[in-house]
Amino acid sequence: MMPKMTISVPHEGAAGLTGAWRTFRPVVNRDVCNKCGICAMFCPDAVIDPDTLEIDLVYCKGCGICANECPKKCIEMVREEH
Amino acid sequence: MMPKMTISVPHEGAAGLTGAWRTFRPVVNRDVCNKCGICAMFCPDAVIDPDTLEIDLVYCKGCGICANECPKKCIEMVREEH
Amino acid sequence: MTEIPKEEMILKCPSTCAGCGSLLALRYILKAAGKDTILVIPACCNSVIQGVYPYMLHTVPVYNIAFAASAACASGMSEALRATGQKTNVIVYAGDGGTADIGIQALSGALERGEDFLYICYDNEAYGNTGMQRSGATPLGAITTTTPNGKTVNKKDLDRIIEAHNLPYQATASSSYPADIYNKVKKALTIPGPKFIHILAPCPPGWRIPSSKTVEIGKMAVKSGVWVLWEKENDKFTISAPSRAAMKKPMPVIDYLKAQGRFRKVDEKTAAVIQANIDKNLRKIAIEAAQSEENI
Amino acid sequence: MTEIPKEEMILKCPSTCAGCGSLLALRYILKAAGKDTILVIPACCNSVIQGVYPYMLHTVPVYNIAFAASAACASGMSEALRATGQKTNVIVYAGDGGTADIGIQALSGALERGEDFLYICYDNEAYGNTGMQRSGATPLGAITTTTPNGKTVNKKDLDRIIEAHNLPYQATASSSYPADIYNKVKKALTIPGPKFIHILAPCPPGWRIPSSKTVEIGKMAVKSGVWVLWEKENDKFTISAPSRAAMKKPMPVIDYLKAQGRFRKVDEKTAAVIQANIDKNLRKIAIEAAQSEENI
Amino acid sequence: MYEIRIHSRGGQGGVTAARMMASAAVKDGKFATACPFYGAERRGAPIVSFVRIDDKPVRIYSQINKPDMIIILDPTVMDTVDVLDGLKEGGKIFINTNEETPFPPGFKVFRGDLTGIALRENLVVSGSAIVNTPVIGALAKLGLFTRESGVEAITDTFTDPRNTNAAKAAYDEVIV
Amino acid sequence: MYEIRIHSRGGQGGVTAARMMASAAVKDGKFATACPFYGAERRGAPIVSFVRIDDKPVRIYSQINKPDMIIILDPTVMDTVDVLDGLKEGGKIFINTNEETPFPPGFKVFRGDLTGIALRENLVVSGSAIVNTPVIGALAKLGLFTRESGVEAITDTFTDPRNTNAAKAAYDEVIV
Amino acid sequence: MSGKLTMSTGNKAVAAAAKMAKPVVVAAYPITPQTEIIETIADYVASGEMDARYIPVESEHSAMTACIGASITGVRVFTATSSHGLLYMHEMLHWAAGARLPIVMGQVNRTLAPGWNIWAEHTDALSQRDTGWLQIYVSTVQEAYDATLMAFRIAEDTRVLLPVMINMDGFLLSHIMQPFEMTEPGDFIPPLNLPHKIDVLDPKGYGAMSPANVHYQFRFDMEKSMRASRTVIDETETEFKKRFGRTYKPVDEYLTEDADVIIIALGTLGKEAEVAADLLRKEGIKAGVMRIRWFRPFPLDMNIKGKELVVIDRDYSFGFGGVIAGEIQARYPDAKIASIIAGLGGQEVTYEDMAAFVKNRKTGTEFWFGIPQEEQ
Amino acid sequence: MSGKLTMSTGNKAVAAAAKMAKPVVVAAYPITPQTEIIETIADYVASGEMDARYIPVESEHSAMTACIGASITGVRVFTATSSHGLLYMHEMLHWAAGARLPIVMGQVNRTLAPGWNIWAEHTDALSQRDTGWLQIYVSTVQEAYDATLMAFRIAEDTRVLLPVMINMDGFLLSHIMQPFEMTEPGDFIPPLNLPHKIDVLDPKGYGAMSPANVHYQFRFDMEKSMRASRTVIDETETEFKKRFGRTYKPVDEYLTEDADVIIIALGTLGKEAEVAADLLRKEGIKAGVMRIRWFRPFPLDMNIKGKELVVIDRDYSFGFGGVIAGEIQARYPDAKIASIIAGLGGQEVTYEDMAAFVKNRKTGTEFWFGIPQEEQ
Ligand SMILES: Cc1ncc(C[n+]2csc(CCOP(=O)(O)OP(=O)(O)O)c2C)c(N)n1
Ligand SMILES: Cc1ncc(C[n+]2csc(CCOP(=O)(O)OP(=O)(O)O)c2C)c(N)n1
Ligand code: SF4
Ligand code: SF4
Ligand code: SF4
Ligand code: SF4
Ligand code: SF4
Ligand code: SF4
Ligand SMILES: [Mg+2]
Ligand SMILES: [Mg+2]
Fold first, then answer.
1. Could you report the predicted ipTM of this complex, rounded to two decimals?
2. For domain F2-173, which architecture applies?
């Protein structure tokens, strides 16, 4: 008999849709991007796909690290409008 | 109002008359002793008077350190007889 | 770099603050550790960011434990696992408070006993989870909610304390150098006995920096010599590449201090003391590295 | 020597075992400290030997405190005394268990905060009061009731752990060298901030030696380099005279081991490891002393 | 008793806003409590706080389930949070926005571009516009407390005149 | 119920003696308990321990205040401890000594030079003669339990034959 | 209220009261939801508003120990904690009381892990009820402030000399903002004169071996002081009213006189229960409220004869039952109690829920709010 | 008794039982008077008699935590402590129960400092009564052994999954030597199958944020298990008797059937009370004894109707009263109790004293043995 207690199972979104936290959104200028992958490497939340370099805006918190670290400076942080 | 609790005041013999623990008693050969004071220095229990070099047998536990450390080897540990 | 697995071991998306260094570090730790791993986490930011019951985001088992207790918990786990023939990695991921302050007793005991586990301290230099009170690891001059005028004593030298326990493996790392973290964790996990890695993990709200600056500030820490990356395998002490480079001509620490709101009350005198501390420490580390070279 | 006051600060006669090294040491500590002193004692042999209520033997105030708690207690005392303008010495007298094991957290915290007190650890290398279980400070190979075949891991290097806290004053001492204790305590008490002295205190029942051999074994520890007497004032590291002499030609450690029942299960291999550890440590200490000389 | 729920984000100052609202009401001679439903929120995460205003001391500590008014300091929280949950029929909504936002009928909707005002007054901390003082102005305009009490509540907390300026601007600019 | 109090010193083995006594009685089919009144005693400090022997299980845990018998393993404790305290009228005394010791009248006194025997058998640990096995021999002689049970109780605890030898010597040499 | 009102959280009010009491040493360790107390004090000290030493210890065990070390030198001390912090100092709680030190502690009630949960529950403090600490549970910001002031006076009274814990519900009170009057205590708290303080000129030993034939006497002396504290509390609350106009009793009563049924609860639940009583009375049920403020010493003169009781426990003693219900039944054997377990781990309990507890009460049973009837 | 008898102390018997149960990990820290337990286990492990890992932790907080860490991997664990050691692990006691881990602990009852005193008292364990641990108090060496064996089976039963503490009086039982039968348990203790053990192939998170709307449900589940443990205890004791012939009940009764007055006590006092009852009966007083063995879960079916009770508490909750007397009164409101506080800090209490308690009993009062009447 399994005791009832705080035992959790892995599940995406378990801490909420953190994209809602964002006030600025990263917008990549694909023309300039050299696909170096540095943005994906440094994104703390791992919301940049390492292959496609797509940013998952459902979760991206808009921290701006990707923009700050991009060697090509091709990510712009744009104010969210709703 | 003083609370009743385990508060103790300084008092000789508070841990009992430790001389009773002794199975061997230090006996000093005063003829050989050079009064260097080493026995008094090393007696853990400080029962050797630093001036007179008298041993307080009420408390001496008979550890034998004095005998062991005496440079003149003039302290003998003698079995207690009662 | 190419060897780092692409698979993420943490699902989207923990409730760390935007730009959290400790999360960035943990990504690479778990990539290095792989699935046969149990994570032990004492009270800290990383204990609350996992998601809310009945769900969690980490894809390895996570055992949350009391604040003071992580190394003891890992001791019990590792002894039980080894006794039953299991090789599962036991990794503690704890904050600086849970390591240098309230957890140091359990840690010191586990190290002395030679337990087989990896202890990783992510150091955001304060009690982040409770809103940035000073910890033993808070550096001189830093403002926290309990040091409103800046801390007046030095950061506890956790690494030397741990070093005194003569571990088979010990290292420092930084969330701004993920590959270095990955490699160090990988190596550590091949070695039996207690291992310790100390990761500087910048924390935007605590350090009063924009969330975008986490990686940049972490690099500045290394460039200025505030933080030195090294590893020590038994007696072999090596300065890691980024710090070797940085130590040739360290950035003045004032640049590092100025970039952070928490140091805004540091006056010139204190800044000079901080610089002097760094200079002294760098000299010492250089000597240690040189001596270690010689001995090989 | 002549300057050591004759007055004893402990009345006859504590209920320590016959030949107790920790009591011998305490005699000289209190002579050095004088009457304006509060002694803080955690659970240990020295907490039970004071006499039985309503009487006690110490002629300075003694505050007994919980096992893990002495450094924190001293912190509170010293802060309160200083806040009210009193200079009273606050001295912790704690065993190795209360220092290196259960008490290390409070101690490490107090040192980091820079509290103004003197912490003295008397090291009998086991939990004497509870009948000789192993402590973190029990040396490799020593039999205790919880290591019936001899301890399989090294003695925790308490001194290096403390050193990592960068105290203004730190020293080692031995109950076999009372004048050295006296001088070190005297000096320590002139210095503000946290001070630490680590005293090796042979323990006849624990070490399985005749009670008469306490002083002799303590000297052998120094002569063999098992125990090195030194002091460190800020960055100045000095080897004390007896160890300077001993280090010229250390006695083989096997003589030291053979003299004690607790080491009776040490085989040749372990003895060699112990000797190698000592050799290494002595080299390190010599280098440190030399470097410290240079820097002056 | 008048019950207000405030929706904002960690770091935006919603909690301080609640306190100033309660404080202003108290200055008017009312009784009021402000209670932040704190969790382990991080900067950026949606949070709610509550204000209760009454003519006698407030003795209720449990959450507000049927508010008389909803204040939305950050409209983006509406994507993930049902901000209207429990709002009484005919209840009021104040939303920080510069454009009309559609709400279901049966509520009285007010708005003001608090963020715009904050940015104008340069009330920005770590990249976020601080809207907790402008909202006090807007609410004074809505009659929750007097203008004077609102200003006093702000100056009790903040010395920087930008705060009162922003509040005054909001008072003037709120769209009823 | 037969109640015995043993006076000895820390390190002398008085506690083990008590256990072997109880054990021997149990081997005879009796019920027995041995309880050391432990304190924080040090090697050398006087201690007491207790043995109770009965035909049914012993249910008493409190100290023995009116013993039927006193055993003095170390006569020197008599300097500081009132060893006869509470001894019943007509009670027995056994003392480890080689010379006659005066006791008040009304008790039955027995003696044996256990220390001498232990030294003879070289039963010495850290300089102290261990008298806890010889005493078992002496007590068997006094009829507290059978000789066989006494020997068994010793061999359960100690493998070294010096122990049984000493006990046997004591059995023979005890002066009744 | 008479004076100028300040908006403040419960936490800040406790910190403000501690400042007014002028302790010489504050040693504390942060924990949610207590942090604001010690952060406020750290601010006071940093700004010079408070002339105290703030010791930022490395754990709660050390926090309480540092308080003990400071207190025995004869100075006033203060600390604050919550939940796991309180548990971690458990050994030293026993110690502080046994050492007869008048330490005052702000304690923010929070539930216990695992799993982590930071919301209100009283089990943390109630499970310390044998430690020899006086315990008060407060329900408003004003009361938190006033109780903290009174705590120093009561603890330090030489008839008492026991530590005092001021309990307040996590978040519900610690973080709520209410208007309150920050009364200047003046000489309401007399200077501390600790009879057994350490004196190097008259050296004494504290706490060495305590023989079996006296130890129990020291424990009885603690109990005597606990008993005496009832008088001291009454005196202090009377004096407080005389000076500052606010009335407090060990048990706060609301509409009890003519009540048929009485809700008994601690802290904010006890305050909100008044609203439940109002509601019930509207429905014709004569309900009242007794809010236990001083839980240690336990109240012995509650006038509950002939009334039915609905006791709400925001706590639980596994394998036994609600602590409050149990102790009331123990001291008032005739009491007709319906025991309700509600509010654990921050479970939401409204006055409407409480009214329902009353309406559905079954004397002699225990009911866990939120658990389906068939599982009870 | 049937089998071969061994002379053993209570400590050694507990160690022997632990050995029989074959735990995989033992983590413990020494403290008088428990040391013998762990020294014996260390010996067993060193000699190979026991195939376990002995972790010589640096404190009791770590001892309990290491047990928790080992237990959650699904292995059997054991530890032992006493007094301040128990207090120092207080936080982790709450944790172990909340984590639903079937840890078994030998606990030697000793009083609390200051001043230092190493003799028997139950306050150490009783002040842990809210932690969710099952608690049993034993009175003979045989019972200590048997209870330890049964503890593993009870704790690990999936209907229970709560930790169990075996309490024995310091020195009085821990150090007394009695003959006992070291029964081989065979398969009496089934293999442990922890349903929630960590599995890297099915990763789960333990103890992260537990929301307010479920946390109380987990607490209720603990209470449900506590309730279920009553059945499990009965089953286990029945099975034990079937296999090994020795009979145990949650409450041990002696001459209660026709008794007018019943002494209630725990541990060795409860055993020696039988002698007091015999003595009283000789004097014509119909006395009996109820020795509470399982204190958590609290016994709910004591047959005390119409009898007078003399409850001896070797413990105290300051500002309230004796813990046992209080809880009995709470659960048996009709009980006519004379409450006696006796034996604190090793205070000597003989069967003659207990007989006197009965003869001088005053129902409804509390009496501190050894304290002059006028001070009571
Ligand atoms: C015994 C105890 N004391 C205090 C706390 C409150 N607490 C939880 S996390 C934390 C700070 C953790 O700091 P750190 O270890 O540096 O990790 P961070 O939060 O910075 O990630 C504190 C004080 C607790 N949970 N338990
Ligand atoms: C919390 C706690 N755990 C355990 C003990 C038991 N205990 C008292 S003294 C002691 C050993 C002390 O060892 P050490 O510090 O080395 O001093 P020594 O006895 O050797 O003088 C122990 C384990 C205690 N008093 N408190
Ligand atoms: S860092 Fe910049 S250039 Fe590199 S992949 Fe990302 S967006 Fe492209
Ligand atoms: S803004 Fe931050 S969270 Fe979003 S993709 Fe960039 S680095 Fe990741
Ligand atoms: S040590 Fe020997 S020679 Fe020196 S004073 Fe003592 S007895 Fe005399
Ligand atoms: S035998 Fe020991 S105690 Fe006695 S005088 Fe010599 S050194 Fe001191
Ligand atoms: S407070 Fe700092 S460490 Fe904690 S989650 Fe936020 S950024 Fe990360
Ligand atoms: S056990 Fe050792 S340290 Fe303790 S009193 Fe005896 S000799 Fe001294
Ligand atoms: Mg941190
Ligand atoms: Mg020691």
1. 0.97
2. 3-Layer(aba) Sandwich (3.40)
